[in-house]
Every structure is written in C-alpha cells, then in structure tokens.
Amino acid sequence: MKTVSFLPRVFLALLLLTAVSRGLPAHAQLAAPAGSPPYNKLILQQIDTMPHEGGYSASHQASQRLGGAVTVALPSGLNVAAAQAQPSYCSGATYLVFLKTVDALCRRGDIAPDGRTLSALLITGQRDGEGVWGRWNANGPGTARLFYELGLGRNFSDFSQAQAGDFMKIWWSTAVGRREHGHSVIYLGTENVNGVENVRFWSSNLGVGYSVKTVPRTKIAAAVFSRLTAPENLARALPTAPRVDPYLARLLSTDSSQEQVRAECGM
User: Fold this and answer.
1) pTM of the predicted model as reported, rounded to 2 decimal places
2) What is the tally of structural domains in the chain?
3) I want to staple 228 with a disulfide (CB 3.0 to 4.6 A). Which of 39, 68, 72, 223 is the partner?
4) pLDDT digit string (tens) for 193-205?
C-alpha cells in the first residue's frame, strides 16, 4: 500500500511550534495537499474555523448544545455557532464541519439556499436512522449510508485512495451495531514514525474535545471513507428519502457485519 503523507515530519514539527507560538490550534496551520478533491479542500478550511479542545461529553446536555448551535439563516444558508457546542462528541463535531461546508457552498452559489432542505439538516433530537442527523449520528456507517442514499459522494475502504478531508468512520473492533466501538472523524493523512504507520484525523476526541489525533494504523480494525462529490444532491434527494433508514435504526439493538456495511453503502 502506498503511504499517503502530506507533511514531512520536520516541517510538521516546525508548523506545530509556529501554531502554538501564535496561540492558534495546530490544525489551523494544515493545508490540503496538491491535487486534493475540490470539496476536500473546503472541508479542511472549515476545520480551521472550529473551536479547539473544549472538552468531550456525549451527554444529553451536550446534544442540546449541539442542536442549539445550528440555525437556518435565509437567504444566506446556515448559521453554525460551533463554539456553543462544547463539550462535544465525535459525530457532532464532524457533522458541524459538514454543515459549515454546506453553508459555504450556499454562500458561494454552488447550492441554492432552500429553506426546506436547510431545515432538514437541523439537529432536533432525531433518533438513530431518522432524518439527516439521525443517520449521521447512528451506529454503523451513518455518514457513508447517508452519502449513498442521497448520492452525495462515494464510499470506499482502501487507504491508498484516501485524501485529507475525507469523512471517515473508524471501528476499533470489527463489531458493527449494538456492540461496536467506533469513531467519526475527518481523515488528515498518514505518516511513518519510527517505522510505524500512523493515521492522523480531526474530530472531538475523548478527554480533549475538538482536536487532531494520531493513532497507529494497527489499532484500526476497519474503516469507511466518504468523499463529498455532489453536495447539490441534497436538495434533489432529500424530499424523496425515507424519513427513517431501517438499517441504521436497528443497529442500536442488533448486530451487523463489515460485509453488510459494504453492501448498504454501495461499496
């Protein structure tokens, strides 16, 4: 497998030192590699606008703060006040970046800011598998399933195809569904440290909150990448999408498999 490395280690160290000296989060100094898919670059730019750290919590109160951080702002797009969504958790963090990307696309004219579509993106306590947020936040391949259902992009599991700015679901074990241990992140690349391949990603990470984290590739049992390629399909596909995705809805109480993940996500 070809290693995807977008910053030499020495340069990265200097970059991080510069970020600290300026009082900026380290991720704010990272740019998209040359040749990145166009929306990936935009996604990375939205990470730069996110708060740094702020604590981690998956409590009901954290979900309420998350929901209150997003409002429809016609005629422009969305108002995403991510600083209000602290402490945070992983799926909420990546969803806020997705919403910030949608808002940026609305404001530059790539997506028509339609009130019905934008309202469907709000976080209003949807259960797993229900609506857009309920799909994103579900056990299993929530983001990948949403991308497949609405035609927003492509899903794949081959690390050699991954690019910084791809959304990524990590499983720390092969279990999918009620027994799974997973993490919703945005992929930043890989790097070799002392002969060990490491995966770098941004998310809300346990014990820290919004941050960049690096883990050995060997700790990842399975992963699915989702690349945004057709965000304009939100308005086209949402009106006809089922209110609840039955596959994702049942993963709170049942088991699935990596084989079924691939089938349900068009891989």
Assistant:
1) 0.88
2) 1
3) 39
4) 899 999 999 999 9
